[in-house]
Specification:
CATH architecture of the largest domain in chain B: Orthogonal Bundle
Structural class of chain B: mainly alpha
Strand content of chain B: under 5%
Number of strands of chain A: 7
Oligomer: heterodimer
Structural class of chain A: alpha+beta
CATH superfamily of one domain in chain A: MetI-like
Largest sheet of chain A: 5 strands, antiparallel
CATH topology of the largest domain in chain B: MetI-like fold
CATH architecture of one domain in chain A: Orthogonal Bundle
Order of helices and strands of chain B: HHHHHHHHHHHHHH
Distance between the termini of chain A: 47 Å
Number of strands of chain B: 0
Helix content of chain B: 55-70%
Number of helices of chain A: 11
Number of helices of chain B: 14
Largest sheet of chain B: none
CATH superfamily of the largest domain in chain B: MetI-like
Order of helices and strands of chain A: HHHHEEEHHEEEEHHHHH
């Protein structure tokens, strides 16, 4: 009889749970249907086309920074999408590299035994983290870069560059035929360092004698290309810039929008990376350091062989999510007019075509794909580096 | 070794060892300086570098923002460099003149007491909810999540039957809008986030799947695209006569975005509740909702309160993005005022941004101090 009551309760639970789920599906399905119905109705009334046909239509608008050939008259909306996406990826890639360097430096400085260094780093982190990124971006763009001198009064930089409120202008490198020899010498240097490293490691495993690699490696990497350059005779020259009345021509142009976005993303993300690094290093227990010292490792070797490998396991996952944040935050470009994916596609293309649903969906899909790809990589990493507990 | 073995093994000290000088004082101001700033040559060099940096950076900043600053004036003339005053600092006169615009936007001057009343009611709710020693915090939650939203709507939007004229949201602006966006974000995202977090841990596969899809989708895209979606797609999805107001659209976007992040924070708290608590509640015959409401959530939310506050700090900073869809939040009012030709002096942008940075810093830093103090208190409670 108790069994019967049990099955009764279970049976009723099961029915209830199925009812809840079916109800939820019907509710969501109904909402989606109503939204689609309304959208179709509203779009038809506003005479807006639907579907992805616009992709191959001529764009007809200019973009200030294009990494691939693009022209307003001949290129399509699809081309504009790729231009925007590449601009997003460019600013994200440069931002990630710089933010990592700055973030690690600040994070380690926060742990410094020097009180002043630690306080300065902590002050940096607190100020940057507690002020909105958009405000910092506007500050860099409007208050710093836009208040640089006009073209006429450009600041001349060492090496022939110019800095003014239209951007940073650098001379364009000209590669002579001998440059490939220099490149080959550099690659040979890299190869030699790898071989040397393998040999040193094997020797250390056999004899226990440690060979310091830093100076020989540096010498190989620098000396070979320099020798090659000397032999072939200055294969790399820089073409001088032409100073026009309203602009500087004939060089590499770095837009102030790009510079402001890179600066803001770098300094902002670096503050968060610094906290990640600090937490990672602190997560390695003091016993590890003491044990390493007891084994006779010097402080450099302790850091390199004991602390860093363990800290990195803690650092990498939140570091990845900071990288993703940086990529997502690069969409703030729209506020200062840097032609990233959001500004070009979800801004200009959306305004021209009026096809909100398709354009926003494509834009979101791009970011979503990047996020999912990164978290898949992260899961893989977590699986391969997880410590087997005994 | 050989040299030692020739000697007799026993060694007896006959005389007291020579006295060593006392160690340099390890305590006191001097000892502290020695240990923290001058412990090694490298450290001394670092300290000197830092001192040089501070000496280079701080005096110009102080001079710009305080000593050379212009504190009063009627227009840009006051903030321009003149032969008598070649060094002109921050243009605080600009902030003074525009201050009420920064706080209220275009809210009608005669009705601004309603905004002040709203700020007071909100501050009261926040203090009640966040002071861990406040009485009846359950009533506080009821006030904050139910009474306050209704009260605020009536106060700010207006209700003709009781004599409050309607103020359309297009006139709202400044800190008022920033605070509203942030408050609406928290008021909606916390309950929704809790539901989503519970959904993600649910036994029902459909509920779990829907929660995961929503959370991962929203967390995978930038807030700007969510705001774009809310502002351009939402009007398409509803019948024409229900098309929501511009501010409401942005609020929907922010609430959606925040609830996905809140869900992940709450999920962390739920995971921290030991399994035994679930089992004990089940053994006492609690239903799912009674177990969740009376046993699990109170513990989970307590543990996760610092993280909730940290998420809220992020939300507060993110409110600036409503700027992009044309809402006049605090930052947007600064931008608008900055563009006014009457105040177009070289120092105006920096002054405006400095004022905005100060506002955001004070709010966010205050909240993060609070989160840290709660964390410390929880750590003490955990050690018992």
């Amino acid at each position: 009889m108790a069994d019967e009551a049990q099955t009764g309760v279970r049976y009723r639970r099961r029915i209830a749970s199925i009812a809840v789920q079916v109800g939820l599906i019907v509710l969501i399905g109904g909402l989606v249907y109503a939204a689609a119905y309304n959208a179709a109705h509203n779009l038809a009334r506003a005479h807006i086309a639907s579907g992805f046909g616009f992709w191959n239509n001529t764009a007809g608008f200019d973009i200030s920074q294009t990494l691939i050939p693009y022209s307003a008259a001949a290129s399509t909306f699809g081309r504009a999408f790729w231009v925007g996406l590449l601009n997003t990826l460019l600013v994200a890639a440069i931002g990630i590299v710089l933010a990592t360097v700055l973030g690690f430096a600040v994070g380690i400085a926060r742990l410094s035994r020097n009180w002043l260094v630690a306080r300065l780093a902590a002050g940096y982190v607190e100020v940057i983290r507690n002020v909105p990124l958009l405000l910092q971006l506007l500050f860099w763009y409007n208050a710093v870069l836009k208040s640089l001198p006009e073209v006429q009064g450009s600041v001349a930089l060492p090496g022939g560059g110019f800095l003014n409120n239209r951007g940073l202008f650098l001379p364009r490198p000209e590669f002579a035929s001998g440059f490939s020899a220099v490149l080959a010498a550099f690659l040979a240097g890299v190869f030699a360092v790898i071989v040397l490293r393998l040999w040193a490691r094997r020797r250390q495993e056999r004899t226990g004698a440690e060979i310091h690699m830093f100076w020989p490696a540096l010498a190989l990497l620098c000396a070979l290309p320099i020798i090659a350059a000397a032999v072939t005779g200055a294969p790399l020259t820089f073409s001088p810039l032409h100073m026009g009345r309203f602009n500087v021509r004939g060089g590499i142009e770095i837009l102030p929008e790009f510079a402001a976005l890179t600066l803001a993303l770098t300094t902002y993300t670096a503050a968060f990376i610094a906290e990640v690094v600090r937490a990672g290093v602190l997560s390695v227990s003091a016993g590890q350091t003491e044990a390493a010292q007891a084994l006779g490792l010097r402080s450099g070797a302790t850091l390199r062989l004991v602390i860093v490998p363990q800290a990195m396991r803690v650092i990498i996952p939140p570091l990845t999510s900071q990288y993703l944040n940086l990529i997502k935050n690069s969409s703030l470009a729209v506020a200062i007019g840097y032609p990233d994916l959001v500004q070009v596609f979800a801004g200009t293309v959306l305004n021209i075509t009026g096809q909100a649903v398709e354009v926003v969906a494509i834009t979101m899909a791009v970011y979503l794909a990047i996020s999912l790809f990164a978290s898949a990589l992260m899961n893989l990493y977590a699986r391969t580096t997880s410590v087997v507990e005994h | 070794m050989a040299a030692v073995s020739d000697e007799p093994f026993a060694y007896v000290r006959r005389l007291p060892a020579e006295r060593l000088p006392p160690p340099l004082a390890p305590t006191g101001a001097l000892g502290w300086l020695r240990a923290n700033l001058f412990s090694s040559p490298a450290n001394i060099a670092l300290t000197l570098l830092c001192v040089l940096f501070i000496a280079w950076a701080i005096p110009p900043l102080v001079r710009f923002f305080l000593i050379d600053a212009v504190w009063s004036g009627a227009d840009r003339e006051a903030c321009l460099a003149t032969p008598e005053h070649p060094a002109v600092g921050a243009c605080w006169a600009f902030v003074r003149v525009w201050f009420s615009y920064f706080v209220y936007g275009f809210y009608p001057a005669g009705q601004r007491w309603r905004v002040d009343l709203f700020f007071i009611a909100l501050a009261f709710g926040i203090v009640w909810l966040l002071r861990l020693s406040a009485p009846r915090r359950d009533l506080g939650a009821l006030y904050f999540f139910v009474v306050l939203p209704v009260l605020s709507f009536v106060l700010l939007h207006g209700a003709p039957p009781i004599g409050l004229a309607v103020v359309p949201t297009a006139l709202w602006g400044g800190m008022l809008v920033t605070v509203i966006v942030a408050t609406v974000g928290i008021v909606f995202s916390l309950p929704l986030g809790i539901l989503l977090a519970l959904g993600r841990r649910s036994d029902l596969p459909v509920v779990r799947l829907l929660s995961v899809i929503f959370i991962e989708f929203v967390r995978g895209v930038p807030l700007i695209t969510v705001l774009f979606m809310a502002s351009v797609m939402l009007p398409l999805f509803v019948p024409d006569r229900l098309a929501p107001d511009k501010l409401v659209r942005a609020l929907v976007g922010v609430a959606m975005f925040a609830s996905a992040y809140m869900a992940e924070v709450v999920r962390g708290g739920l995971a921290a509740v030991p399994r035994g608590q679930y089992e004990a509640a089940r053994a006492l015959g609690f239903t799912y909702w009674r177990m969740t409401g009376l046993v699990i959530l109170p513990q989970a939310l307590r543990v996760t309160l610092p993280n909730i506050v940290n998420t809220f700090i992020g939300l507060f900073k993110d409110t600036t993005l409503v700027f992009v869809v044309g809402i006049f939040d605090f930052l947007r009012t600064i931008e608008a005022a900055r563009a006014d030709p009457h105040w177009g002096a070289p120092t105006t942008p920096i002054t405006g941004y400095a004022f905005a940075a100060l506002f955001y810093f004070v709010c966010c830093y205050g909240m993060s101090r609070y989160a840290r103090s709660v964390e410390a208190r929880l750590a003490r409670a955990g050690r018992r």
